[in-house]
Hints:
Helix content is 2%, strand content 67%.
Amino acid sequence: RSVVALSAVCAMAVVSSRANAQGTLGAQGFGYPPGQLSVFSRSLGGATGETDALSPLNPAALALMRRGGMYLQSEQENRSLESGGQTGSTQVYRFPLFMAAVPIGARAVLGASYSTLLDRTWGTEIRGSTSFQGDTVSFTQSFRSEGALNDVRFAGSWAVRDNLIIGAAVHLFPGENRLTVAREFDDSLTFAPLRDTSTVNYWGYGYSGGLMWRPIRTVTVGVSGRIGGNLDLREADTLKARAKAPSRFGAGVRWYVPGLTAAFRVDRTLWSDMEGLGSEVAKPEDAWDLGFGVDAVGPQILGTHVTIRAGVRRRTLPFLADSQQVDETAF
C-alpha cells in the first residue's frame, strides 16, 4: 500500500481504503507522523532536517539561530477517499511545530520546541439499523478520535569551533487521545441519541544529541540521535501500559555554492519501541525516511530574485495496511 503526497505550505494526501475498513491515515496504529520538519525543510523533501535550526531533530542545528527568535507553523491537510464507488473528503488543521530560541554569549544557544510526533485525529460514520420490539429503526453511528502524542524538547548547542557544533536535548512526550462513539437514530423524537467517550493520556521522556561539522567551506554534515525512555499510557489516572518512547537516528549532508544548495538526509525511527503500549494487534513498524532537495536563486521578477525550491521524499509509515507496510512519496 502506498500514499503519494504533494507538499507546499500544507501537506496533501490521497489514499484508497476498502469499504469494510473505512480508515484514514490518522486512524492507523498510534497515528500519523507529520515528520517534525519546518516548512523550509518540507519544501526540500526533508533533506535539510539535520541541518535546519527550525526542525527539532538535531539539537546542534539550534546554533544557527544565533539571533534568537520564535517560529510557529500551521498546516491544513485535505484528504479524499474513494471506496466501492463512494467518495468522501476530510480536512485536518494542525499546528505541528512551535520553537523559540535565545543566544547565550557568542557561541551558545538555548531553545525550546513543541512538535507533533503522532497525530491521531480522524472520524468516520456508518449507517445501520436495529430492532426494538419488532420495529426496525435506522441510525447513524460515528467514531471520532482527537489528539496526538507530542514532543516537547529543551535543547542547547555550543559552537566548539567555527566548523564544529555540538548539541544536546531533553525530551518530554505528553499526549492525549479523546475517543468518542455516538449513535443518532433517524426517529429522534422517539429514541434519544447514545454517546460514549473515553480519554487516554501519554507521558514519557527521552534524550538526544547531535553535531554539525563543516569539513570544507561548501559542505555541512549533520548527525543526530534520540534515545527514548519510558512511555506510559494512562486512563483515568490508572496506568494501563508501559513501553518505550521511539528512538531515532539520522544523518544529512548539505552542499552550498553561491546561488545553489543541494541536500540529502536519511533517518531511521524505531517505532517498534512502542509495542505493548496498545492492543496486541497494534504493532508499530520501524520506518525509514529519505529526502533530497535543491534550493536555487531563480530569475528576477520586478527587480527581486525569486527562490526556487524542489524536493522529493520517500518514507515508510509506522503501521500496516492489509499486512503490508505503507509507503509515502512526497514531491
